[in-house]
Amino acid sequence: MNYTAEEAVVSRLLASIGSDAPAAAVVHLLAPGVICHMDRFTVRGADVWVDWVEFLRSRVGDLSVEVERLETGADGIITAFGGLTTGSGGASASGEGSARYRVVDGRIVEIWTSSSNYEIIFGPKVHHPLRWLLVLVRMALWRRFSRRHAARSDPTSEDRSFDGAGDRSRDGGPADDYPQR
Prior knowledge:
By secondary structure, the chain is α+β, with helices and mostly antiparallel strands. The chain contains 5 helices and 7 strands, in the order H-E-E-H-E-E-E-E-E-H-H-H. It is globular.
């Protein structure tokens, strides 16, 4: 496909979600302080995005993103249409989902997604706000206590993953501190 430079960044990021390669391998596609919106929740930081992908991968044996098309709006926001495919049997939610991306200077600075995009992984609880909150709490606990995360975390620092405060970017600098929207 003939993608613009910005669309190619989004396409590479989406391809990495299902890859066997570490999600951290594509962190250079994200701004260190990337803002991720999911329904009424907002998190910040490339590390949080990487942990979310690793959490998703830990829930299913095989994960891939099927991108049907990318559309760039007049405002420059790129919408990806498609869905997730999981497991060796290929359970699919293709064509049912979408997410939007804002790319600045070759890096994704903002992502908008919906819990319904993850129904293939978490089931119908994605449609119930309290049950979905429990999934996010489970992710936060997984992030806090997983061996993978513990190995790369500084044990002397406080982890405040839901708002991104205090996170450090993967390149070693402090994450950008964006005001709450």
